[in-house]
Amino acid sequence: MRDRTDKKGFFRRRLTLGNAVILSLFLHLVFVIGSELSLPDFYTPPDEILDRKKPTVVQRVRITAAPKPPAPPPGPRFISSLTPSEKKPAAPAPDKKTEPLPRLPQESAADVTEDASTQADNAVAKPSEDAAPIPAPAEPAPAFPIQIRATLELRVNSLTASAEQRWVMEGLDYSITMNAKKFGFKAQLESEGEIGPDGGLLPRDYRMKINDRIRTFSEFRNGTLRYGKPSGIKSASLPAAPQDMISLPFHVAVTFNGSPQTIMVSSGKNLYEIRLVLDAEETLKLPVGTLRTLHLRGERFNPSDGTLLTGYEVWLAPDYLNYPVKFVGRTGNGDVVEYRVTQLEIEGKSVLGDPTDHVITPEGDDIPAWLKNRVDESGDDIPAPSLTTP
Hints:
The protein is mainly β. The model is unreliable at 7-44, 76-87, 120-129, 358-364 and 378-390 (pLDDT under 50). It has one domain (2-64, 140-377). The protein is globular, with a radius of gyration of 31 Å. The chain has 5 helices and 16 strands.
């Protein structure tokens, strides 16, 4: 009992950089971040692919929340102070003197009959363009939901955890949160921003917290990105707001139309480019059910040093508004990280999984010996945060 208390007390006093990154990886952050620990291999039975074919139609999902109606144009408004009984009736308009219309030359009945016959013949011989069949309008893109809540199963090495993800829209503003707990620690990610003219996400603020203390952040204002740790803030001039750790999957969900994408992403620590291409349409059998998915393959490119990391895979579910139901990625050391959805609610209605199901963590939530050894060997402590939440 004392041994367990000592181990947990050790972790409460000291959270190393390596362990913080592992916790962040649990939140499917490996799209844009690498691990600083080398983890042992593990084997996860692959999900079954029941069918695989070339995609025929890829329909984009769009956010359809409308902006507020414009305010009426400025100007004085005149309102009579008289009551209806006091208002005087309007004076009748004076009679206008009308002039007789000039008489047109009369046509004979034969001329009228001939003109009518000629018009009828022309109508048959030369049909009007207006009579041509009108093509049916394109089917409108399905609307992305206002509220989403999902539970994710996360795996790194032999470790498993569950995370709760929430998406909320108000007007054209969005908010995303993700929370996970492991080894007595609480990791929280927050992203806030707005919807851009093209329907994509424009993040303003991103924060990753460990036990309510900011670990990394990014904020975009007037073409300038400020990002980094509280102890070392960096800045960069960018033409548009980059995606962040948790806005990226939603941005892909509402902008992907089948064409390759290159997306700038800020991890809060670095800037990367994510490149995604459509590989196939797959019928994927997951523990939560059998789903029709779009399988995307991707890579991560770092413009600053030219490094390229492959091995990223995303499965979007078109029948669930392109929600990313599965992700597989690799850390900077080549370790495999995976997440899959175990429960999904859209607009408050459960559409996948059992809401009462939860991922079972090891009894007592003990810290594995291999992880504790790596923590003991690491001397990097997280500095005390000096940045307040905007």
